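Pinned message: reference record for adenosine deaminase
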Amino acid sequence: MRVETIIDLAKQNQVELPEKDPEKLRKILEVGHNCKSLTDYLRPFDMTCSVLQTKAALERATYELAEDCAEENIRYLEIRFSPILHVEKGLSLSKVVEAVLDGKSRAEKDFDITIGIIICGLRHLSPETTNILAELCVAYKNYGVVGFDLAGAEKNFPAKDHKEAFYLIINNNINTTVHAGEAYGPESIHQALHHVRANRIGHGTRLKEDGDLLNYVNDHRIPLEMCITSNLQTKAIESYSRHPIRFYFDMGLRVTINTDNRLISKTTLTDEYMLAIKEFNFSPKEIKYLITNGFKSAFLPLNQKVKLLRRISQELKEKGLEIHKDYI
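Predicted structure (tokens):
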């Protein structure tokens, strides 16, 4: 979210903020590298969610996020959120999703961007709540919702507790991604893959601790959604030099680069690619593969993915970074 929008929405909806000055509020919301843990990282979300309790606010936030991403030349965007966090002022879960879908639809018309919505279950909430969110995801499968996620603190909140919700999702042929192996060990990734059948893994920084599982992920071309800045802030890694992205890439894993949260992490996708170049010496050719990995891992029908990849291939070719046709 834009800080200015948070302040504006708070004023419109009589929400109390700790600061009304944009720069002072920004410093509160951006966790920086003094963040102590994933739990610490998640705290500012209470503030952002407090102003996202009306249809107008949700539609506006979705639209503005898409606009900011389009300005970076992002062609495909997946927005994940948990509708259960936006019902404090009486909105129904369906109205929450429809508001986000309205923002998505308006943004796709106005900007050169394709958007998919991912509904998130939250590990610390009850499995019954995750079931309700899964039912919501099924209802909106063909209306812009492209996947289901399980997010939140990993420790003491195992993915297998939510397997009934994922059973519904899988039976309805819906894409799945799970935050795993970020704040907990590779057994969390194992559960994500084998108990709830994740098609992608969010973060996966600790996958390297289990060579057998790493090879399984590689052999099955399971994408890893890596967020370099966020991983350092949540203490999933001790320093950039300890981040496994280069090791995973060299091993042939399908690594993708992501922002996690643009505001809280004070980052953009451009910043994350620049970190990959600066901290891990990714060459232009390797950056090309990271970009195409993102498109190949998108929760889109194959024919749409192929069209996007061909378009991106042409754009990269014009900049001297041609993609081999076998990679599309």
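Pinned by admin. Summary line: The chain has one domain: 3-327.
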